[in-house]
């Protein structure tokens, strides 16, 4: 399964580090080389091939300069995530690596393999059982994430038992934690969740809640963005996917992975 460049609310997106920005510039340089561009000279932003501009629309490219890196590029898997090391062992990159031609997030694809989840091990008692159906999925949602809201509006199209873990990304959405607690502590959690996901407010509530445990669980599973969807066969999908696409994935699952 390809992990494409999908819309999502990503932890730390507001605070892009210099290392991540450097990786993005390096990706641009690799794309330019693929197009046969002469990187011995500086290229101006208006000369960059359209594929690069389309792949990184949020980045203002001022110039592209050649850097000498040795092949191959090594993928280094650590307890803190994935790093990339050039063939000389001198240059280290952090962040996410994209295949611009295939429009695939190579880092997330590898993380999905590493962090494959055993669905039965998820603490479903900490999730909201949103609806029932033939299949099973779990969704890590931030109530203020627009992509979570978009997906939420399509959940009725899925023939699936849906478990929603409230996973506020407070660095992006400071009010999301309080909203998550209020949803959990509401007398009717499903109704409260629907209200919040529609952009409306609900009364502030407080009670014993699992939000902190869910945040710890998300860190353990390597979840960095919302929505993150976990299929019943353990695959982890980051970012918004249309309900029709998700339904197709569920129908293709091995029968052994389906709920009896």
**Distance, first to last CA:** 24 Å
As a whole number of angstroms, the C-alpha radius of gyration is: 20 Å
| Average pLDDT number | 81
Q: Which parts are unreliable, with pLDDT below 50 for 5 consecutive residues or more?
A: 14-22, 255-260
Helix count equals: 8
Q: CATH class of the largest domain, please?
A: Alpha Beta
Given helix and strand content, the structural type is alpha+beta
Task: Give me the side-by-side strand order of the main sheet.
Answer: 9-11-10-13-14
> Which percent bin holds the helix content?
25-40%
Query: What is the CATH-assigned architecture of the largest domain?
Result: 3-Layer(aba) Sandwich
How many domain units? 2
Shape: globular
Q: Give the tally of β-strands.
A: 14
Strand percentage lies at 15-25%
The CATH topology of the largest domain turns out to be Glutaredoxin
Which H/E pattern describes the elements?
A: EHEHEEEEEEHEEHEHHHEEEH
Q: Write out the CATH superfamily name of the largest domain.
A: Glutaredoxin
Largest sheet: 5 strands, mixed
Q: If you had to describe this structure to a student in words, what would you say it looks like?
A:
By secondary structure, the protein is an alpha+beta fold. Helices cover 30% and strands 19% of the residues. The C terminus is likely disordered. α5 packs antiparallel against α6. α4 links the parallel β10 and β11.
């Amino acid at each position: 399964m390809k992990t494409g460049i999908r819309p999502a609310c990503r932890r730390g997106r507001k605070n892009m580090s210099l290392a991540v920005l450097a990786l993005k510039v390096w990706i641009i340089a690799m794309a330019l080389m693929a197009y046969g561009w002469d990187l011995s000279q500086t290229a101006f932003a208006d000369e960059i091939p359209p594929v690069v501009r389309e792949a990184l629309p949020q980045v203002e490219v001022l110039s592209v300069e050649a850097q000498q890196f040795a092949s191959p590029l090594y993928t280094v898997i650590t307890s803190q995530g994935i790093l990339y090391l050039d063939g000389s062992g001198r240059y280290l990159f952090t962040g996410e690596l994209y295949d611009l031609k295939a429009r695939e997030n190579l880092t997330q694809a590898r993380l999905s393999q590493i962090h494959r989840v055993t669905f039965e091990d998820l603490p479903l008692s900490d999730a909201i059982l949103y609806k029932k159906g033939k299949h099973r999925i779990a969704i890590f949602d931030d109530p203020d994430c627009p992509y979570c809201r978009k997906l939420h509006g399509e959940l009725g199209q899925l023939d699936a038992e849906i478990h929603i873990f409230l996973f506020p990304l407070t660095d992006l959405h400071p009010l999301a934690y309080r909203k998550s607690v209020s949803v959990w502590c509401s007398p009717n959690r499903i109704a409260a969740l629907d209200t919040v996901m529609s952009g409306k407010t609900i009364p502030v509530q407080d009670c014993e809640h699992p939000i902190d445990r869910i945040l710890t669980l998300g860190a353990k599973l390597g979840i960095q963005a919302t929505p993150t969807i976990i299929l019943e066969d353990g695959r982890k999908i980051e970012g918004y996917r249309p309900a029709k696409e998700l339904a197709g994935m569920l129908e293709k699952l091995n029968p052994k992975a389906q709920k009896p």
